[in-house]
Amino acid sequence: MSTTGTTGPSMSGATSTGTMHQGRTTSLPGFDPSAPLLEVSDLNVRFPTEDGLVHAVRGVDYSLRSGEVLGIVGESGSGKSVTSLAVMGLLPGSARVTGSIKYRGQELLGQSDRSMSRVRGKGVSMIFQDPMTSLDPVYKVGAQIEETLRIHDKQLSSKAAEARAVELLELVGIPNAVDRVHSYPHEFSGGMRQRVVIAIAMANQPEVIIADEPTTALDVTVQAQILEVLQTALHETGAAMVMITHDLGVVAGIADRVLVMYAGRPVEIGSVEDIYYEPRMPYTLGLLGSLPRLDSATRERLTPIKGAPPSVVNMPPGCPFAPRCPLHIDECDEAEPERFQVGPGHTAACIRTAEVAAAHGHAADIFSESADDRDLGTTPAPAGVALAADDLDGDGPAVPPGDQTAPRAGAEDAGTQSVVSAPPRPTNGDRA
């Protein structure tokens, strides 16, 4: 969940020298501070290719309130990053972008690059997916942070900009920042480079931070550290955030609302509790069921989604998920379903939401058993493997059931495998 307005997480080496202040005191000149923060309406992005028109983003709608964290999840190629680049105005000139993107009531689509430069970094900033390609290898990291600061504050002296750069590096947990500010990007590890990119994104205390898969290609320990840094960034700047990821485990701990994308289109939008406990779209249910759960009271097999997403070139009529959907019926092939209201602030693009609701978040009730699952029942469990539930009960190692094996709870050698731990279910009607 977003912790904006509360005490930020503590990190070793992350200390503030006092020049940063929490939240913005003024909005960008020329923008209405009382208008909605960010509104995206019917956003469509098309790219002309030799094979036809690639409809990469199809009708994306969302709004962002101050201090809110919106998680956008989906498989690779679902249009998540293209959506964020469209908001920032960073798509190539060949892209055909329609719809509406409003920041503080003003339309951003169609603005010149000079006009967008006023918004980028100060109003809306972005943490790019690959820090090695987003940082210039021939400039020191301090110089790149200072450039970001001085573009939006012409009166800032070189000495003050360097001091601010040092403070930002300390804030994101880089030790010995006074010396490391003079280092080049190749002298940092992947996790440290990602911290530098986060420092650049939060340098001018933007109102919106778009984080495009900031934990991709990082091991699980560094992922946790980066998420703590992001929480610190939200706390220090008072910003709202759009967290783009394919990892539902990341979203569970930081997001307030979740937008699930498939084949360039939002297929389910709801609060984080709605998405994790009561999904209404088979694709969302499949995403949840394909990852291990540490908070599950029962031992359930994983339910991978078979097949691959469809091509977004000349898509056939009907639901794009139909060929992979276990609830597919003939009506699914007639037309692509609209998003139906299935609860307060909860919509899903599926004509069989009632059948999905009956599963109550248990993917194994919808997705059928595969041949691999049946073969697993005759395979002996690896030596020394025990289920988390058995260890927590204090009964020692136990042999897992035939339909599942799982690592010991808290195992440190899980590599980069994602594990979902859903947010606590509210008990009194309030948000957790």
UniProtKB/TrEMBL annotation:
Q: How does it sit in the membrane?
A: Peripheral membrane protein
Q: Where in the cell is it found?
A: Cell membrane
**What is the originating organism of this protein?**
Modestobacter marinus
Q: Where is this protein primarily located?
A: membrane
The taxonomic lineage of its organism, from the top, reads:
Bacteria, Bacillati, Actinomycetota, Actinomycetes, Geodermatophilales
Where do the ABC transporter domain residues begin and end?
A: 38-288
User: In the UniProt record, does the keyword Nucleotide-binding occur?
Assistant: yes
Q: Any idea what this protein is called?
A: Peptide/nickel transport system ATP-binding protein
What PANTHER family is this protein classified in?
A: DIPEPTIDE TRANSPORT ATP-BINDING PROTEIN DPPD, OLIGOPEPTIDE TRANSPORT ATP-BINDING PROTEIN APPD
